[in-house]
Each structure stands twice: as structure tokens, then as C-alpha cells.
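[worker-b] picked up task from shared queue
[worker-b] task type: protein-ligand structure
[worker-b] ligand name resolved to 5,6-dimethylbenzimidazole; SMILES cross-checked against name lookup, match
[worker-b] sequence length check passed
[worker-b] input payload:
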Amino acid sequence: MTDPAWQQPIRPPSQPHRQRALARQVLLTKPPGSLGQLESVAVTLAALQHSDSPDVDPIRIAVFAADHGVCDEGISAFPQAVTGQMIANFAAGGAAISVLARQLQAGLEVINLGTVTPAPLSDGVIDAAIAPGTANLARQPAMTSPQLQAALATGDRAAARAAEAGSRLFIGGEMGIGNTTSASAMACALLEQPPTALTGPGTGLDADGVAHKIAVIEQALQRHGQDREPLAVLGSLGGFEIAALAGAFIGCAVRGIPVLVDGFIVSVAALAAVRLRPELHDWLLFAHHSLEPGHMAVLTALDARPLLALHMRLGEGSGAAVAAPLLRSACALHNQMATFADAGVSGASE
Ligand SMILES: O=C(O)c1ccc[n+]([C@@H]2O[C@H](COP(=O)([O-])O)[C@@H](O)[C@H]2O)c1
Ligand SMILES: Cc1cc2nc[nH]c2cc1C
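[worker-b] inference finished, payload out:
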């Protein structure tokens, strides 16, 4: 039997391309370091893409959507039906990520991994339903092992489609009412922190709502928080869309596509995936710092330096889509700026 996709080899970044990109940055007509993170991003992309002219176009955005059985515990400000309704909105072009994808001229695909209210079949939605949502993680494991493998494989297929389309940057988004409970529980298990430190309002719970959500996560962690192995955490506390994101990110690294990581839920998926495959870490760029309070701890654990902090907390891949033009700028500056020699500009004084 062949190994599952998430066990395939991941190519290391090219050190010669990194060294040449670093050397070129010093020659460009600017004080060394003055373009800050735009410099390091261009150098990272050059090494990842094994290219002296890094480029993020075409960009692929894949939004993974699924429902969560833990909604039975009353942990979200919104009803579960919104997940299916938003899938239709993504496809119809009216959601925030639909607008941003158009603006970026990025390919957008929406992948339905299973909702309680069947999402209307629409063009542009890939049906990859595993079940009408996960089981209630406060009372039983969120998913079975075959369901977890199916979700990981669904993510890998999205990475394969991105590679076939020639994508040079992958943005993974998510939609799932209740998924901040799942992501917070996963983060607690993976980071060995208490729910009080990593739980927040999600779509907009008040203080009482957050206190109840913390109690639900405590219950879930008591039931199955002891096994901190990443597949066990994904299976017992995760969501289908979170597992698919983990599979997609590993699949992108396997195929040589850099990933721009979105907000809290996507970062938790990335953390689980990095625990599974530490070499994935090189392939992740971080878009923004979400308002969800657990995000900072997850970013710190990933040693991430997010590009933006806009107080966003939408999900869908929206923070990454907003940050993507910064990567375009970083590449354009790296590729097109004149050198001191070309432009006849004097370098720094001795
Ligand atoms: O990306 C984030 O940082 C983020 C923070 C808070 C909420 N969300 C979105 O809100 C939904 C989950 O919120 P909740 O309260 O239902 O758990 C889900 O569809 C996410 O895309 C996303
Ligand atoms: C309307 C709505 C849109 C979303 N997009 C991502 N999560 C969401 C949650 C809600 C409630």
C-alpha cells in the first residue's frame, strides 16, 4: 500500500537561491534592510520556489467548510445553518472572500466537507461531504480515524489541483460555525495550556458565553485531551475543515507551493500539520494576527511574524487574501529595483 499523501517527502528550500536573493537585496538602491519584512519575504519565496525571480501569481484560494457537533452545547453566537448558507454565498460571489479573490484575480474553490443543512448544489462548490458535521467533541471523539484520513486526503487533493493549475501561492480558508471551540480545544491540547488562556468570543459571544465555552472545552479536554499526538488531537478535537487544511498545507509543501496562513483556526490547523511534519514549517508565511485571543499563543509556538494586525476575525482566508498584495510588492521590488551600480547611485559611506 502506498503511504498517505501527508507522508510524502517535502523538498527543502534552496540554500543557493536564498544566498543569491540575500546578496541581491544588498545591491538594490535602498539602505540595507530598509524594506523590512518585504525583504525577508522575497528571500524566503526565492528559496522556496528555487527561483531568482520569486512570484506569487497565480494565487489559489481554497475555502474548506464543515459543521461541528459541538454546536449542540450552545458555544456560538450564530446558528449552525449559517455554514451551509455561507457556502452558497461563497459560490454566488457575495462573501468577503469572494470579493477579495476577484480583486486578487485568484482562483477560488469552495470545498464542502459536510454540513447539517445540505448546502444547495452550486457551481464552484466541490462536494466532499464526509458526514453532516463532526460528532460533539465534548462527549465523544469529533471524528473516526477513517473520517480523519478522508479529510486529510480532501485537503491534499485541493493542493494537487492548485499544483495542476500552476499556483505559486496557496491560501487556505475555513468556514464552520463552532470551529473556534474546536480550534481552541486543539490549541490547548497541542500547547498544553488551559482553556482560559486560549478561548475567545469567536463570532461574538458575550462574557457569559465565553465562560460557558471554556467549560465545554474543559469537559472535552478531560475526556480526550491527554493524547497530544497531532493525529489524535485532530481526530478527537478537530473539525473536517481543520483536518483538510492540515492535509492541504502538507500537500502544498510536498508539491513546492508556499502557503500564506490566515487567522486563528487556520493557524491551529497549521500547528497540527507542523507537529505532524516539522519540515512544513519552512513553507508557511503568516498573514495576520487575528483578534481571537488564542491566536497569539499559536503564532508564537509557530515562531511566526504575521504581516498585518487589522483586528480582523472573519476567517474564510480573508486575512491572507488582504495580505497577499504585500507578497506581490515584495516580489516586484526584489525583481525590478535597480542596483546601485545600474542606477549610478553611491553606496553607504565607509
Ligand atoms: O480567522 C479567525 O481568526 C476567526 C476568528 C473568529 C471567528 N472566525 C470565523 O467564525 C466562525 C467560527 O466562530 P464560532 O463562534 O461559531 O466558533 C468560523 O466560520 C470562522 O471562519 C474566524
Ligand atoms: C455571517 C458569517 C460569515 C462568516 N464567515 C466566516 N465565518 C463566518 C461566520 C458568520 C456568522
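[worker-b] attaching auto-annotations
[worker-b] The first strand starts at residue 59 and ends at 65.
[worker-b] releasing lock
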